[in-house]
Amino acid sequence: MPVISAPYAFNEGRLFVDLESVCGQPLFLKCEGFNFAGSIKLKAANEMVESAERDGALTPDSVLVESSSGNLGVALSVIAASKGYRFLCVTDSRCNLSTRLLMEALGSEVHIVADLDSNGGFLGKRIDYVRGLCASDPRYVWLSQYTNAGNWRAHYRTTAPEIAAQFPELDVLFVGAGTTGTLMGCARWFREWRRPVRIVAVDSVGSVAFGGEPGRRMIPGLGMSMRPPLLDESYVDEVLRVEETDTIRTCHRMARHGFLFGGSTGTVVSGATDWLARHDTRGLTAVAIAPDLGERYLDTVYQTNWLQDLYGEHVLDAEEVSTLTRQAKPASRGPGRRRRP
Ligand SMILES: Cc1ncc(COP(=O)(O)O)c(C=O)c1O
């Protein structure tokens, strides 16, 4: 029985969902949403704060400041509240309302940037804003998740060995890419492992993280409007790009089986399912990482008006068809499958 006295001291590291009955491919999903910050970002936040404390960069009168699309902001809010630091999160208008309210409930200050940068994202503007704050007052301490080695080191120390411990025969790992902290930490650890693991990065269409054309992206977490400074592509075997409509359909498909995951999980699972359908999966062990859960996305990914305004009236039609097709083949399904009314 884990008993903790600090909210950052617990993280469920051993929970995996077997998605075969949901997506029709052999895929295990590592769930990173079960901690007091509700996302994988608690690991990166912990590592970066502890290392700034060790270096002496963070002192009791420091004010933490960070640019975040939400989850790192919540994780830093949890840690700052627990350790007695002030925290100011610079986010943008794509940040979910519930995420912003969460940060404020934890005592953090939230500043919202509304101007787009030249790549159609908010990142450049958010970073300019943080730089301006740091120049205005030496008490501001910017951990800079985009460049901080603690971001990837957290996953090198925890996420990758947690996967290896449960899947000693792992062949392929699918990792969503934002700052690429998760991707680089896992890729570096598995490069040193006793067996080769194919590292597949999953990005969203419209992100310029791995090159490509910038475009509109409405789902926070994955994708970048600049090249991630932490990214070293020599560790990445393949990059998949997923359309937001496919992300949304995959999120809804999982929700119909009772698994309510966040938007970026839909992206990673969609990319992974597609990849697995194109490869020989006999004897293959595949794992994907789910960065968070779905409650923060109730007013976006899981809200009909939001979906139809952005992606058109028929965005979920293809999903309806595939759900009905699956229902028409009950003999091929395992027990306990949820039936639609
Ligand atoms: C929901 C979600 N998914 C994926 C990611 C990407 O993780 P990373 O920044 O380690 O690449 C993030 C990062 O904030 C996130 O919040």
UniProtKB/TrEMBL annotation:
Q: From which domain of life does this come?
A: Bacteria
Query: Which residues belong to any copy of the Tryptophan synthase beta chain-like PALP domain?
Result: 21-291
GO terms of molecular function: transferase activity
Q: Which PANTHER family match?
A: CYSTATHIONINE BETA-SYNTHASE
Asked if the keyword Methyltransferase belongs to this entry, the reply reads no
On assembly, the entry states: Homodimer.
- Which BP terms does GO give this entry? alpha-amino acid metabolic process
Q: Where is this region: Disordered?
A: 322-341
Cofactors, names only: pyridoxal 5'-phosphate
Q: Which Pfam families does the record cross-reference, listed alphabetically?
A: PALP
Protein name, as recorded: 2,3-diaminopropionate biosynthesis protein SbnA
User: What keywords appear on the UniProt entry?
Assistant: Pyridoxal phosphate, Transferase
> Organism, per UniProt?
Streptomyces lucensis JCM 4490
